[in-house]
Amino acid sequence: MSVADYQQDEGLPKADRETYKPWSYDLSSTDVYVPRFTAGQPKWFAAVTYSGKNDKDARVLIMAEQAKTRRWEMVAAVDLDDTKQLPKIALDVGGYASAIDATSAKNVAAPVGVLRDAVLDNFATGGDLSGKKVFATTKTSQQQIKVHDKTTVKFGSRGTTEFSSAATEFPGSYALKTAGGGALVVFAHTHTQRDAVAHSGLQIVPGKKDRAWLKDRPSPSFTYTFTCSDVATVPATPGKATLIGYTCRRTDAHGMAAAS
C-alpha cells in the first residue's frame, strides 16, 4: 500500500505532487499491546495512536518482525471511524496482551475467512449475500456498501462497474483478546473493480490518479486492484462482528486495447 502511494504520486505532474515531510507517531498518545510469544512463534505487536482534538482520531498499527531479515516492519495501519468502538484489550498481571488465532472458529464466532468474505461481499453486492449477516450495521460497514452503491451506477447507461474478490496477497491476520472475551482482529483483503463501456464507440479516459499505471491511454475497460486492511471486533460466542475501520489503496490497474 505504501509503495502504491509513492507510485501514484510519481505518476502525477510535478506541479500536483505533494512534498514529502518527515513524520512520526507521538508515543505519549499511543497505547502499545505486546503479546507473549514462545520460541519459534512469529513476533508482532499492536499499537493504537491518537491524534486530533481530544484524541478523537485513532489508528491501529501492527508491527511484525520479518523472519528473514529480523527487521521490524509496520504491516498494517488502519484508521478507525469511531474511537468509542475500540474494545478494551485484555492484559495479564504482567501487562502483556494475549494473541489469538482468529482463523479458528474455536476462538472467535467469525474466523478471518468469514470476515474477509463478508467484507468482499460488501463491495461486490452491497452486503446482500453475507456482509449484512456477518457484520452489525456500523459507519465502516455502511461506507463499504456505499462504495458499491455509488460506484456501480456512476456511468449510468454508458457503462458498468463490477467488484470482485481477488487472491489475498497477505492472508495473515493479527488478533488480540479483548476484556469482554472476544477479539480485535486485523486482516487484509484484495478486491478488483472492473469499469467497462456499455457499447462500442465509447472509451474510458484514465483519471489523474490512475496515470502511474494507465498513462493517458483511453480504453473500453479498466480493471483496478485494491489492497486493503480491515479491523473488526469479533465475539467469542455466536453473534455479529463489528467492522470498525478499513483502509484501501489502488495497487495495480490495467486496460484493454481498443478493437481495431
Automatic annotation (TrEMBL):
<dbReference type="Pfam" id="PF26366">
    <property type="entry name" value="DUF8094"/>
</dbReference>
<protein>
    <recommendedName>
        <fullName>DUF8094 domain-containing protein</fullName>
    </recommendedName>
</protein>
<feature type="domain" description="DUF8094">
    <location>
        <begin position="1"/>
        <end position="255"/>
    </location>
</feature>
<dbReference type="InterPro" id="IPR058407">
    <property type="entry name" value="DUF8094"/>
</dbReference>
